[in-house]
Amino acid sequence: MSIMSSYARALAAQEGRAQPVATVRHVHLSAAPMVFIPLRLAGEAAAPLAAMVGTDPENPRLLVVPQPRNRDLRFAFMAELADVMLPYIEGFAEVVETVEAKTPYERYADAPQILVPSRGGVAFTKLLGRSTRFRRADGPYPVHPTVPVLGQWLTFFADRAEYAGSSALVAMTDALALHFATGQSPMEDANLATQLAWISPPDGQSGAKAALAAEDPLISPPAGPDTHPDFDGQVLEHAIRAYETSGSEAQVREALRSQLTPTWSLMWHAVRLLRGLPEAATVDVRWVRDREQFTRETARLAEGGSPRGRVDSAVRAAIRLADLESVVQTYEAQRAFDDPLVMIEHRVAGKAFTGEVVGVDAARRIVPAGKTRPAPRPLVTIRTSDPVRLSPGRKLFSSRNRKQRTEVVGIDGDLVVLQINDQMGRGASPAPGSLPEVGDVVCYAELDPGGGQRPRLPAGEDTPWTHGGPPTPYTPTDEDAEEAWS
Amino acid sequence: MPISKLGTSPPTDERTRALSIASCHRYWKTAGASGIDRLLLGLLIRSPTVELDALERRIAELRAQVRAAKAAADHATVRLLRAELRKTERAWDDALDPEPEPAQAPSLSVREQVHQALTLLGVPTAGKMIVAVNEAFFAGRVTAGQLTSLRRDEEKSFRTSPYARPYYLCAALTSELLSPARGLLAVSTWPAQIRIIGPLSPRTDFLTSAIRIAEHIARLIHAGEDASLAAYRLLTGMAQNIPGAVDGFDRAEPAQVIAAAGAELTIHRESDMHERGQAAKRAEKQLDQVTRLFGAGLKTARTA
Amino acid sequence: MNRLDTLRGPVAPLDHNARTIAALAVNPGCDRRALLDAAGVDKQKTAAYVGHPAPFGQSPFAITRAASFDALVKANGCAHLLRLLRETLGLSISEAAYADISDVGGNDSHQMRHTRTRALLKRAAAGGDGSCTLFDHPLLKLTVAGHEVYLEPSIIAFQIEGRFHVVEIKSFAVVDDQADAGQVAAAARQSAVYVHALRELFAAEGLDPERVSHDVVLVCPKDFANHPTATLLDVRQQLAALRRQLSRLTRIDRILEELPADFTFDLETQSPDEVGKAVGSVGARFAPECLSSCEMALFCRAEARGDGSTDLLGRTARDALGGLESIPAVLGLADESRPPSPEQLEIAEQLRYVRRLYTEAIA
Amino acid sequence: MIAETPAQAAAAATEAILADFTGGAHRGVIVDSPPGAGKTTLVVTAATTLADSGERLMIVAQTNEQVDDLADKLASKAPALTIGRLHSDGFSVPARVTRHPGVTASNKIEHVEACTVVIATADKWAYVTGRTWTWAIVDEAYQMRSDKLLAIAALFDRALFVGDPGQLDPFSVVDTERWAGLAWDPMQSAVAVIARLNNLPVHRLPVSWRLPASAAPLVSEAFYPFASFRSGTAAADRELRLTTAGFPVPWDRTLNEAAASGWALHELPSRHTIRTDAEAVQACAGLATRLLQRGAVAHDENGSHDVSPDRIAIGCAHNDQVAAIRAAGIPAGVTVDTANRLQGREYDVTIVLHPLSGRRDATAFHLESGRLCVLTSRHRHACIVVARAGIAELLDNHPSTGRVQLNVPVKFPDGWEANHAVLAHLSRHRIEA
């Protein structure tokens, strides 16, 4: 944690209210996001217990497993969940737009967005996907045909959640933490109720006090996936027993509704809070990626794509790692260039600076390394009061033109001299407007919003001996489909 | 959408049930069941489909027998018959009801059902396995909870009137201290060394049980029938823990299980039998008739 | 009477188990916790008494699940376990002998069981006739802060070719060969306590402690089923941490020296207020992580809040703030309402700068 | 039996390595090389051996600086060899490489592929396609991430992987446990992956030619508990002399201690500070300045030389500390860098800002044993550690609650233990400032 966010936390603690750490909203918020609050049975890896799910704050769907140890009831639950989720997800696969490119292609105009309360919700979504995607509608342990389809989608969403800046599956506590510093620790921020208590405490109450009250499981039950042990022992156990003797789900439903409703309200409250922030400039760029991935997955599934294997192969893992790294870098840069409050972190760390242009040598031409002919390499001198900790040769970008490459030539007191390397047109001298002008206030940072070029990796079937040789490609087996779920 | 129809519970159809009852019948024939067993077996075969008047006749019969037993102060038989009576009455209720109930609990007492399972297995066995065998082969409904006080009750009964019953459900004894081995039930009529638990006995007894279960299934197949799904599941689960007894997650084949378990058994048998034999001799010398069956302890014997 | 007994009052000290001993390493910088633990004070009760009950509990479902999985692994003469040991460690088929030490002929006194544990393990180590392979519920002993404590283990000790291993059975799932890293770490710390205690036992019997392996066999349910699977867990690092913490417990004397002679946490004779004051007078080192591991955490957090301590914001925040102890100091230095001491000059300068940028950006 | 001399031990190790590598029984050979153990010499020997028998060879290193160092040394020792220095577009190859007539530098593989030895960074190799080499040497293989090896492994049949296992693990900006436990987890080092997936012989070089007799035992014990090594030189072979006498002030006393014993702990009063602790920063810069002022002369097995600025390095954990020290005024030519960037480099004297100095709590980053190992094993003569008092308490109070992933080999040494070992040793050379 940086000194900036630590300062904001200290301020929040003092003021009794969360403080902003962003001036714009960095996550995409769909017009109709689906809120999904899953619960699981304590002590089990992936035994769903209940879920509250839906797109209408006034009309949540409550799904329960009246006896979570019963495998048939679990799959019935998953089929019911599919009944709610699949129409929502597949509903987006209707309106397409054509993207003008070298080879024009189509993508869906919008995509589904699922909001869960916390990272625990994301992890549990992944487990639910893992435990259902291999299932089959035929064979010895058939499930409803929608169950494996839902499993594939849940896997898709959980995978997307690993990519920085993706808004396909969002943990609400993470989204809030991006925008607000509370007066408690990051660890405690993982509790949606206390985090929101700091962000919008009831009138006349301090955040600290509201957070304390929100820790009471009777007022704010855990947001899942784990339920409160006292609830399990004092309420749920009896309700399940009542189901077993009477066959009526009523008690279990009511018990679980009591646990889920408060979180349901908190989730929509958080959605309204986030909607109150203006959207950051590059949110849409990132959402386009989510839409593209959604388009691809839809096509893959439509072609009968088999479920993703249990683990990534060596090549698959390396490719994914490169993707993950590239989006982290891009996301971090985009966020800073979108939001001066985020940029502060980098300025304080000496990796970025803001200042006024005091000199431009537009006519400068040199022979760049590895080249034979001179090319324009103008110098820009900026006066800054920021503590710049960049050494000559460091590559910088600016919010002015996020694609233009520049490098530090020298730093002398409060003067930084930069060399502009590209984006100046094809002429012998820089194109008009391609350089900052004297008097401009500019911000440069050692942050690259563009993904770098990267080499091709071998195809999976060409995996070299160093990495274990070609793996057997994953094909779903009967065993996978029959995997016990007890 | 009728979600509840999506369930995939294994079919408990009448055919499976009938088979297991038949197989049970035959097993007891071959095992030379005692008179009372035969009598009870007769009850066991009854099902809710028996006509109402037949049931009514049986109820009257039982009531008379209860009265007679009561007069003779044969409390054990009274208990037995009363349980039987309750079951028959329930069967009559069910027969009135147009919706047929799923598998009815057999009419044997818990004690008898346990004896039945133990006789099939032939070695001291933990409650859980007894329940599993009872369910897999005798369509029984014994629950683990019903076994907890069984050994204590048997001991009480034995202390009150020794050897009054044809058999007692008793303890297995640890080879070193001749104390009751935790959680195991045995049959008093077994040879003493069978009821001794040496260090290797948990393993050899497990292997023996697997063989006995496999043999039983083989017998059923030989007779042109087949065992229940539960029986195969039980055997497969056991076979997975015996080297070479089953391939991967396939269903276990009795012959392969018998061969594999037998092979491992050969490795342990000699030292296990030696240990058990020695201990049995000591037990013979050191223990009285009660402790020989229910174990000597440094404290009062624990319950099963 | 021992100083620690005075501290605790006239109740029996709380029993240690692997979990409580492993917890010694969770916040070793906290004198408060060290003292309460060393004196065997019931922290749960004390916290409730002073008005900050710990929010801990275990779901009955989790307890049932753990017990039934444990029973499954051990069922039928440890049939599952033998299979796993044969698969993962190459245990030979002939090694199958099993001894249960949960009681000795029906007597389950600690002394009795410990004596038997020692005898059986010694015999096994000597490799004599009738030596066993699996030892269920061995009762081990460990010296903690000068006290001998029994460890009620939920483990099986097991030997292969003269090496002894600890088998730890846990009911969290291993899905596609991965498990929750927090739970695995907790299991590793607990297993390390058993390995350590087992090694002490070996040393006391004149056997080579290194015959107890640092590779623990962790048995968990595989994927979403109940089928057990085994993974070897190297606990060398946890063992080293444990040894460090056990050797550091002697510092209790130093903490005690600074306390008045009649100092006590006795719930019988002292009012909640007095106990609260007594607990408060022993230095704590609160961190938000305590909330998930220490029964006194809510008390300490309330105290930290009262002091406006930067500890509330988390360990990393406190380090980022140059180690400043109080939130008012942070903000006072930032808005220049508080003059910096010479050693605060640097952090004060940074905070002023941060505040200026922050205020600009918010405006 | 007569004890082997360091030179004999090293020669025997090299011989065994080459026999395994060229013998044909294995597709790969791993060589663990502690700091300054003659890794470069081994690479040069292996390259010339192969070249002598008419074989072509590719060499992979991780940074351009490493590639240039290797190319320079190779060309110096084997002038007859044709060496292709393959580099990326826009990179200018330094004169120390291009001055050799046998070296051809180009950014196109077609221009250099005919050379007996082609050498480039792993990043550059990843763009080479359609060609294969029978032999490869991968240098600094512990620094290389396994996904980088994946990109180039199709280029060669057999490879010698050389590297220092005690240094920093490769790094990723992504914090994911998705692949934890997989043998081919791309976030591991290249060596970790090949060793887990292939049964390859592992050799180690037993002698450090860089570290003096005063340092080798400590570094070996603290950071290489399962692969000990010794110094190639005796205590008498190395001497650091300060030509002017010092004043009785802390900086000079610290320098005296370092010159006399090879180690010094310049200890500032205990205090929690920000990362760029001005006093500590000042001490690092001041010690470097003062060392030059006092005219240090280094005597070693090759003769004597003045300790010039380029033979001094200041190392720290964070970039902002590097910037602060540079800003504090250091003599021109003195290297200041983070541990990551000092890997594989060598100096006469190093000054280290202790990663834990002034902190209240340690993080995994600060405790990483590789970081301290790099910082305390770059010197031929002396290492001066600047730190606030209180690190021992910090270590004692450090909670051990790390996460543990199944099937991930435990990393040794543990950062805590290594830090303690170094601190215990340094306490014998403490000068209070």
UniProtKB/TrEMBL annotation, chain A:
<feature type="region of interest" description="Disordered">
    <location>
        <begin position="446"/>
        <end position="486"/>
    </location>
</feature>
<feature type="compositionally biased region" description="Acidic residues">
    <location>
        <begin position="477"/>
        <end position="486"/>
    </location>
</feature>
<protein>
    <submittedName>
        <fullName>Uncharacterized protein</fullName>
    </submittedName>
</protein>
From TrEMBL, chain C:
<protein>
    <recommendedName>
        <fullName>Secreted protein</fullName>
    </recommendedName>
</protein>
UniProtKB/TrEMBL annotation, chain D:
<keyword id="KW-0067">ATP-binding</keyword>
<dbReference type="InterPro" id="IPR050534">
    <property type="entry name" value="Coronavir_polyprotein_1ab"/>
</dbReference>
<protein>
    <submittedName>
        <fullName>Helicase</fullName>
    </submittedName>
</protein>
<dbReference type="Pfam" id="PF13604">
    <property type="entry name" value="AAA_30"/>
</dbReference>
<dbReference type="InterPro" id="IPR027417">
    <property type="entry name" value="P-loop_NTPase"/>
</dbReference>
<dbReference type="GO" id="GO:0043139">
    <property type="term" value="F:5'-3' DNA helicase activity"/>
</dbReference>
<dbReference type="InterPro" id="IPR041679">
    <property type="entry name" value="DNA2/NAM7-like_C"/>
</dbReference>
<dbReference type="GO" id="GO:0016787">
    <property type="term" value="F:hydrolase activity"/>
</dbReference>
<keyword id="KW-0547">Nucleotide-binding</keyword>
<dbReference type="GO" id="GO:0005524">
    <property type="term" value="F:ATP binding"/>
</dbReference>
<dbReference type="Pfam" id="PF13087">
    <property type="entry name" value="AAA_12"/>
</dbReference>
<keyword id="KW-0378">Hydrolase</keyword>
<feature type="domain" description="DNA2/NAM7 helicase-like C-terminal">
    <location>
        <begin position="197"/>
        <end position="388"/>
    </location>
</feature>
<keyword id="KW-0347">Helicase</keyword>
